Amino acid sequence: MSHQIIGLTDWLKTPPGEYLLDWERERFDQAVGDIFGYHALQLGLPEVDALRANRMPHQWLALDAPGASTGPSASLSASPEAAAPVRQVALLTHSVALPFATNSLDLVVLPHTLELSLDPHTTLSEVERVLVPEGRVVISGLNPASLWGLRQRRSKLCRRLGFTELFAPGQGELIGHWRLRDWLRLLSFEVESAQFGCYRPAFDSASLLARFGLMDAAGARWWPIFGAAYFLVATKRVRGMRLLEPGWKTRNARAPAPAVVANRGSAGPDLASSSLPSNPKSSS
Question: What is the pLDDT of residues 37-83, one digit of tens each?
Fold first, then answer.
């Protein structure tokens, strides 16, 4: 039995990998479509164009240098079926030292990037550095607390004895959803939305995956946090910062009420003489 660890690029071509990519493409399109700004970066996973629904004028695809040689592709297509324009890789970099200025990016997309990073927490800290205040990070990953994660752990145990191969890619370590949320909170990120998906069992066969298609709807309703994949959108918050509202939303300041001041020289009744009793001596 061969003990070669399957890479992410090869695994995404398998039936469970294609099933996962279909779900993630839909999530990315929904998440980034309404995020506005000028500069967006996708770090990792050239097999999916996570920024295709975004309208920012400046978009880049970057590959992590330690893992850049693991896959032969230097470009990506929007989808395997559509003849969409090819997005070229803009740069090779280290995820723990991004070549961008502080507070310079409006959106960073991390499709399974943290799982494959040598130091995922430092990678997330670097993303926080390059994001502008109120900038967003979009993260996808495999959930270890799922049927897929259970099979992966069992495969790792059996693989040591030479019995089986790993089910999911074995390059990195799966990061739990709640662990990731703790990291984001420590870095002053606020999680806007979190989704789970891919509830079908860990089958290698496309026919078996299709047969259990009803589990996607059942899992989303009855055991939502046990999906094979999770999807997070978080916003970078800066304490003490206040966003200025547009001018049309500001209320007009109320003019102070005019104060009444008594003026002896003004026309009208003499209040002083009318309010005081008359002097009898003056009348005589």
Answer: 999 999 988 888 999 999 999 999 999 876 443 343 333 333 344 33
Q: How do residues 163-176 score in pLDDT, each as one tens digit?
A: 555 566 655 688 99
Angle at 208 between CA 205 and CA 211, to 5 degrees: 150
- Distance, CA of 139 to CA of 109 (rounded, Å): 6
The pTM for the full model equals 0.75
Q: Nearest Cα to 41, choosing from 6, 91, 4, 97?
A: 91
Which token pair is 155? Answer: 């495969």
CA dist., res. 41 & res. 12, Å (int): 22
Cβ density class 251-279: b for 16+ within 10 Å, e for less: eeeeeeeeeeeeeeeeeeeeeeeeeeeee
For 211, the enclosing helix (H) or strand (E) is: helix 206-211
- Whether the Cβ atoms of residue 144 and residue 167 lie closer than 8 Å to each other: no
Residue 136 to residue 237: CA distance in whole angstroms: 10
Helix axes 177-186, 120-130, angle to 10 degrees: 40
β-bridge pairing 87-88 and 229-236: unpaired
